Structures are given as structure tokens and as C-alpha cells.
Automatic annotation (TrEMBL):
Descriptive protein name: DUF3040 domain-containing protein
Alphabetical UniProt keywords: Membrane, Transmembrane, Transmembrane helix
Keyword Membrane: yes
Recorded superkingdom: Bacteria
Native organism: Okeanomitos corallinicola TIOX110
Residue intervals passing through the bilayer: 52-69, 75-93
Lineage: Bacteria, Bacillati, Cyanobacteriota, Cyanophyceae, Nostocales
Length: 101
């Protein structure tokens, strides 16, 4: 029986030794440490370039808006003129054309 106990103890020692080795290996591999850096403002060249791009976008939006308003005004004028012409025809001219026939 002693031999069985000795065998069990030896196995337990080996397991504990292996666990310690594995634990030491885990502690060796540390995660990389990244230092934080203070935010650096952008260079003046990039800053004015962004402002120029923003200005160009706003100018483009202004041009598109003006064109859309002009087109809408033209279409609204055309519709109003057509409605007035139809109204004049119905009120004044339709009865004259019916009498001619």
C-alpha cells in the first residue's frame, strides 16, 4: 500500500510542478502596454483645407437651392398661367364656341 501512496504523491508532485511551470509561463507573457498620447491639434494646412472644402460644399448647396427655386418658380408660373387660361375659356369662351356650332 505504501507503494500506491508513494505513487499517488509522486503523481501529485508532478502535476503541481507542471501547474507551476504553466503558471510561470503565463506570467512571462504580459500584455503589451500602450501609452496614451495627448491629442495633437491638426496642422494649419489641413485646417484651412477643411474650411475650403466646407465652403465649397456650402456654395454648391446655395447654387443648387437657387436653381431649384428658379425651376419651381417657372413651373408654378406655367401652372398658374394654364389655370387662368382654362378659367377664362370656361367662363367666357366656351359658351361662344357652343353657339357657333
Amino acid at each position: 500500500m505504501t507503494s500506491q501512496d508513494e505513487h499517488n504523491r509522486e503523481m501529485q508532485r508532478r502535476v503541481e510542478k507542471r501547474l507551476r511551470e504553466m503558471e510561470n509561463m503565463m506570467n512571462i507573457e504580459e500584455t503589451p502596454f500602450y501609452e496614451t498620447q495627448k491629442h495633437q491639434p491638426e496642422k494649419n494646412q489641413k485646417s484651412w483645407m477643411r474650411k475650403v472644402i466646407l465652403g465649397a460644399k456650402l456654395f454648391g448647396l446655395l447654387v443648387v437651392t437657387i436653381v431649384a427655386v428658379r425651376v419651381a418658380t417657372f413651373i408654378a408660373g406655367f401652372v398658374i398661367f394654364g389655370a387662368l387660361a382654362f378659367l377664362v375659356y370656361k367662363l367666357f369662351l366656351e359658351s361662344k364656341f357652343k353657339n357657333i356650332k
